[in-house]
Amino acid sequence: MIIKKKLNNMKKNYIKTFESFRNGPVNESIYDDPIKKKAEERYKNQKTVSIVGIGKPYERINIIPEGKYNIVEGDQEGRYFTPRFNVTLSKPMSPFDLAVQLAQETGWISPWNYIEMKMGHSDPGHFGDISRVLTFPLQPTLFDEPVNEELLGGLINFFKNMWGKAVEDLKKLGDKPTTDQIDTWIETKIFNPSDSNYLFKSVIEEFGKKPEANNEDCLTLVDNILDPETGALGTQGLQALYENLKKVYGDNLGPLETTRYFFDYVRNMAIKQFKYAGGPDLKVGEDSKIDPAAKKMDMADTTHLPDFKKVLQGAGEDGVKRKEAALGWVNKTLTPTLLKYLKEADTEKVDEYLKSKGIEASAGAGELKPGDTVVYKRDKFSEDEWKKVSDDDKKKTDEGPMKDLQDKEMIGVKKVKEVSGDDVSFEDADFKKTKEDILMKVEVDQSGEAKKAAESLGKIKDDADKMKTVADLADMLQDDAKKDQVEEIKKIISGEGEG
Questions:
Q1: What is the b/e burial string over 247-279, where b = at least 16 CB atoms within 10 angstroms of the residue's CB?
Q2: Do residues 114 and 221 share a domain?
Q3: 158 and 129 share a domain?
Q4: 205 and 92 share one domain
Q5: Are 94 and 231 within one domain?
């Protein structure tokens, strides 16, 4: 089909060139398909369709799912419906595109300015051309460009160019960016309206070019952001990013899947909060699909984007105000909510997701603060040796494989003194490490001191007097007024008070 398209384009260009030489500048309108033009004019207001067998009676949808249908023709009062054409949709289509392409294929245009349909094919023998099945969408012809090519092609090119530049920024973080670094990259680049890599830039700008907007235009704007298949946060918008990440990181799928987790998570949370298509509970990492019938265009409906519909209704019948209201809601409510969910994303959940994919997380130590105990890389660090240590053994920093790696000067374990930008300093040390050097944070209850204290308490737990003394000491440790007494006790314990 690609070759056929090229030949058709060559033929079309040849005719134009010939006409230009013979008669001067060409009026390209003479090459427009007259049937297509008539159908586009006839069906210009067909944004939705009611299909018998989908949803409730008379419920209208704006995207027709792939499947088998029969185009019917009825009288204007709806007293009867006659089967006209059996059609099969190989992928979802808008009612307008289907109506126009049906006219191109058959020459038939409904007298009522809209097409009517029902689920399933009708049996042959009835009135109408149902002896054969028509398949849509059509392939491009001499007169046609691919459906919505200008808009769709522009969006795809925007995403390709944008992701190319965005991934270059991510590459600067090294071969194994941590979960926190990827989170920050998305927050400061992809979800930042003032950055050239802003994910929703093209979608919002395209909508902004409209002089005014009807309700369906506005609902489609949110579609173009949230839809898991066609939206900016869906397969279509993110595919170029994932391809770029795979090229850059190769077999290291950590950055790709970490990025996928964040995008899926924020999108799914927003879908649920704003009841997009009913607010289904979608799963991260799965090829999620939305039931087109659940995207109800009826403004009285409260199951699909009810809060957004209230905002649109507040604009009344003024298309300009409606457009501005939609942009205001997207810029001041929807996109800030996506950013909020990104900031709230649990890095432990990211680790669990990566492990479910058989990927070792490059999660680093998460958010660091003074007092945290961390494991960091030393000069002789070996990635291969580190990978051999099990998750359970990594919790035991003072024994087994972890002690062995410390003895080999591959890793160190220290308490954080200060975090300044990307630099990390430690207590009792005059050197610094970068956040990228931090391998993991040691939980307080996993430290050697906590383990030692637990073992010691276990030995005296049956001695009431000794346990009371321990309780009194614990109270003193928490009382700032007694810190001098605590220091004296520490000296006695450590032997500093001995002569």
A1: eebeebbbbbbbbbbbbbbbbbbbbeebbbbbb
A2: no
A3: no
A4: no
A5: no
Distance CA 365, CA 422 (A): 12
Alpha-carbon separation of residue 57 from 88, 215, 293 (angstroms): 22, 21, 12
Answer yes or no: is 365 within a domain. Answer: no
**Within-domain flag for 92:** yes
Same domain, residue pair 185 and 224 = yes
Q: Are residues 48 and 16 in the same domain?
A: no
Q: Which domain holds residue 231?
A: 149-352
> Which residue type occupies 147?
V
Per-residue pLDDT of the chain (499 residues; tens, 9 = 90+): 434 444 444 444 444 444 444 444 444 444 467 888 888 888 888 888 888 778 777 778 888 888 889 888 876 555 557 788 889 998 888 899 999 999 988 888 888 888 888 888 877 654 555 667 889 988 654 444 433 444 444 445 555 566 767 788 788 777 778 888 888 889 998 999 998 889 999 899 999 999 999 999 999 999 999 999 889 999 888 888 888 888 888 888 999 999 999 999 999 999 999 999 999 999 998 888 888 889 998 999 999 999 999 999 999 999 999 999 999 999 999 999 999 999 999 888 998 899 898 887 664 555 678 888 889 999 999 888 887 888 778 888 889 999 999 999 999 999 999 888 778 999 888 899 988 788 888 875 544 555 566 666 667 767 777 777 777 777 777 777 777 776 777 667 655 544 3
N-terminal to C-terminal alpha carbon distance within the chain: 95
What domain count does the chain have? 5
12 plus 50 within the same structural domain? no
| Residues whose CB is less than 8 angstroms from the CB of residue 260 and which lie 6 or more positions away in sequence, other chains included | 238, 242, 284, 285
The pTM score is: 0.53
259 lies in some domain? yes
